Amino acid sequence: MTAGSNEPKSRYLQYLEIVTGSLEEKKRYRQYKARIKQLPENYRIAVEALERYLMHFGPVDGAGAMEMYDDLAELFEQGAADGTPIRDIFGEDPVEFVEAFVANYPLGHYRARERNRFTSAVERAAGENTTTKDRTD
Fold first, then answer.
1. Which domain range does residue 96 map to?
2. Cβ–Cβ < 8 Å for 86, 126
3. φ and ψ at 60, to 5 degrees?
4. Does 13 fall in a domain?
5. Is residue 41 in a domain?
6. Residue 23's CB: how many other CB atoms inside 10 A?
7. pLDDT (tens digit, 9 = 90+) per residue, 48-101?
């Protein structure tokens, strides 16, 4: 069955999606991951840190999450194409950036530990020395 088809899903596909989740969302996620893999290393590191943070605190539903991840990939692909430095994308406070970024999407709960971990990863990606140890890496 093709995406966007008006045909009803077979019982098998309906059952499979109950067990595994939406097959279309899984396909979109694999495409997103392939896009991120193509980014230059420092952009990829920053996106992976942001993604890890969002996995804990971002949208909980597949469709909302995938919309956000597609927007994230587009933002960093454009930044890499333009040669925009990591700090110019994130600004001085990566947590402030991520909170502004996810303001348009349903949110989960926030935890200080992940904020620190995320900020530290962005500092490393930007080539800055970090004073806070990231004990969870």
1. 24-125
2. yes
3. -95, -20
4. no
5. yes
6. 14
7. 999 898 877 766 666 667 888 899 999 999 999 999 999 999 999 999 999 888
Contact predicate 134/117, CB 8 Å: yes
DSSP designation for 23: H
The pLDDT, as a whole number, for residue 21 is 62
Q: How many domains does the chain have?
A: 1
15-20 contact pairs (CB < 8 A, 24+):
none
Asked if residue 96 belongs to a domain, the reply is: yes
DSSP 38-97: TS-HHHHHHHHHHHHHHHHHS--SHHHHHHHHHHHHHHHHHHHHHT--HHHHH-S-HHHH
- Please indicate, yes or no, if residue 95 is contained in any of the structural domains: yes
Q: pTM for the whole thing?
A: 0.64
CATH assignment at residue 97: 1.10.1900.10
Q: Is 66 exposed, middle or buried (0-12, 13-18, 19+ CB in 10 A)?
A: buried
Would you say 85 and 42 are in contact if contact means Cβ atoms under 8 Å apart?
A: no
Joined together, the tokens standing for residue 23 give 């097959």
